[in-house]
Amino acid sequence: MKKRTKISILISTISAIVVLFILTNYSDLLFSYAEGKKVKIGATKKENTVPQDLQKFNDAFVNVSNQVTPSVVSIIVTTNAKKTNPHQFDEFFRFFPENPQVPKPKEEDFQTQGGGSGVIVTSDGYIITNNHVVENATENGIEIIFKESKRVKAKLIGRDPLTDVAVIKIELDNLQPAFLANSDEVKVGQWVLAIGSPLGLNSTVTAGIVSYLGRRIDIIQDNYGVENFIQTDAAINPGNSGGALVNLNGEVIGINTAIASSNYRYQGYGFAIPINLVKSVAEDLIEHGKVTRGYIGVQIQSVDETIAKANGLLNPEGVFVQSVLEEGAAKSAGILEGDIILTIDGKPLKSSNDLQAYVAGKHPGDVVKLEVWRNKSKINISVSLKERANEQTNLASNNTSLNENESPVTKVADFSKLGFIVEKASSTIMNQRKVQSEVLVKEVRKFSEAENRGLRVGDIIVEIDRKAILKIDEVESILKQKKSGDAVMFRIKDSKGTSRFIALEFVKE
Predict the structure, then answer these.
(1) Which residues are known to be catalytic?
(2) At 183, which CATH number?
(3) Arithmetic mean of pLDDT over the chain
């Protein structure tokens, strides 16, 4: 065979091998171009690298969302309002003064709409929400929107402004009620989900943790208002009010109510009413249309380290009784001003909110058992709760001015370590306050221990460490025996005749 022929055969063989290799390994690509097919992108298989425990944790959020979301609804509320300027909501007109020659328009009614959320609690249509969501609703002005966009009119069953709880009802059956947890078992740090309709975004789920328990934020403007909120960092915005705060078991632990914000939007702090309190109020509203709750009849404050030290308690615990209302349940049971209530029905009290929230779930005639700290020892007192009458007070009606037309006072004493000065009170002031003590606070220094703890100009000191005080000399005698780090308990009567206790501590030098 000729050399040239051998070379030709070799080249043909190599060419055939190359063609065969291309057809074997790239046939899909070649034919996809030929037939105009699209190329598949992305890997065909991904091995799961998520740890099993983390996958279960993720699944818990998914399961809770699927379980609870059908029980949370959106609420649209129509309210009446007044306007006098047809352009009052236009930014342009804000910058122009009124023309005195143009008559002012008459007031006219117009309607506005707001949004909130609610939680279904019975299969036949009872729904819990916030009082502030529905309190100004017009007749037939409450509408429910379900997750699937179904809309139904609702009627108001009852409201309780003191807890910001309300109940409404829709005429539907076979609804899915939410499961209500025991909120006494909630712990700081546990994971929670907030479910509602923030900013009109129905069925929104956000996640966070419980940040604090028993928070008071003073949004209920009533002396008998009950605030004992669960604080969370789950995102809560306008429209979440009345929605559910749930744990990872899918149980509702609270009703979302408020946010702490400087711009009316989420900044990390949301607050929910504990569901135990909500449940008690809602049951009363459904059964009776109103809440009839029992009252102890005391004005209280939380015990801090200084109050504890002044009363011989090793640790700050319980609630301090500032005053006892005349004819109230506490007065009848023998509770005294200056007592410290440590427990109620065996439940330890850490703050005044704890006592308020617990009693708010009780009714007139219910008996609660109190453990009380008095004279450096514990005693047990049972109190039969009474119904709230008109707000009672033992305050004097006189609002005495300190500028009396009397002979000038002479005796003055300066207690610089505590930050206040006293002088001898006039007989007129003593008679009007109905006190025998002449020790009148003349001056309270800025940022002093006395100012920080609530002592004010015009207060009259009537007791120190539970001993009656008549003269300024007695105050000097008692206080000069105190040393750095000691705490002392004052009882005072202010210019309105209100009696209260103040604990002061001698700052360590």
Answers:
(1) 132, 164, 241
(2) 2.40.10.10
(3) 84
